[in-house]
Predict the 3D structure of the following.
Amino acid sequence: TIIGIPLIPVAVISLVALLLFGFTVSAGWLGEKLPFLRENKTPLRTVALGGVVLVLVGLIPWIGTVVVVLAAVVAAGATLLSRFGRRVEVAA
């Protein structure tokens, strides 16, 4: 407990950072799928557009919050799995 209690703020900050990262990944994916900004598409514009859509969906009572949190968690999990997931060993 002496070691674990000081690590609680680190765990909370890490979780918040992971959810914000997941929200950003979800916003980027959604911004890519939207039919707006076909020309002059930049990563900043796609993330901003997707973020606006996610925030507007988040304003819907009850369902919007669930959708935004679910999108952030799924995107964060997919990113972590793609980066730190299983490595396929290729036989020589």
Notes: Helices lie at 4-33, 43-58, 63-84.
